[in-house]
Amino acid sequence: MARKHDKFSYNYGWRTAPEQWNFYWNNKLIRLDHNTRSGVALLMLSGKETEAEAILKRLLRKQEKEDSYICIGFFGVNSNQYYFTQALKCSRNDMQGKLFSYKEWKHYIQSKDCNLSTCEVTSGYFIPNGKMPGKKEEVNNKIDLNRPVIIRLIRAEQDKVFQF
User: Fold this and answer.
1) Quick one: 82 and 122 in the same domain?
2) Of 18, 36, 149, 155, whose Cβ has the fewest other Cβ atoms within 10 Å?
């Protein structure tokens, strides 16, 4: 993957204090441990900016690989909605994990006869301190096992929160 539009920048409190240097990638702070920050700052101080950027790029790629997971899901019958579970997420580079999560999710759906839990949907409007008029209908989600989908989850900045 080419990173043509990457923009690395930095700032520091005191130029000769490596622990006060901060590095940014496209105006986002790169979180580094003390040893890595000191090493990259010393490279910048000695005028080796391209080598420092190469180290930062390697670290970003490593974090990107570690922070991305996939889930296996299935589409519903005659719909564009898909169903998945994060309990069976696995690393995108782990082939055995992918196969395990696919088999487990498929086995779970088959044990339910391709029907996920039935839910009750109420449509209408809400009146405070009163009754809620509207109609209720039961929705039965039937799963099509012939239409699997791979969903890529990326760890958000806040940690432990995943986004699509």
Assistant:
1) yes
2) 149
Statement: the pTM of the whole predicted model exceeds 0.85: no
Sign for the pseudo-dihedral over CA of 133, 116, 164, 32: positive
Does residue 79 sit in the same domain as residue 155? Answer: yes
Question: Do 149 and 75 form a contact (C-beta atoms < 8 A)?
Answer: yes
Give the residues across from 108 on adjacent strands: none
27 and 73 share a domain? no
| Bridging pattern class, strands 82-84 and 68-76 | antiparallel
Q: How far is CA 158 from the centre of its chain?
A: 11
pLDDT tens for each residue of 63-111: 777 667 888 888 888 888 888 887 888 887 788 988 898 888 888 888 8
Which candidate, 89, 119, 93, 118, places its Cα nearest to that of 105? 89
The reply to whether 59 and 104 lie within a common domain is no
Pair (79, 157) in one structural domain: yes
CA angle 125, 131, 134 (to 5 degrees): 40
Spatial distance between the Cα atoms of 22 and 62, rounded to a whole number of angstroms: 19
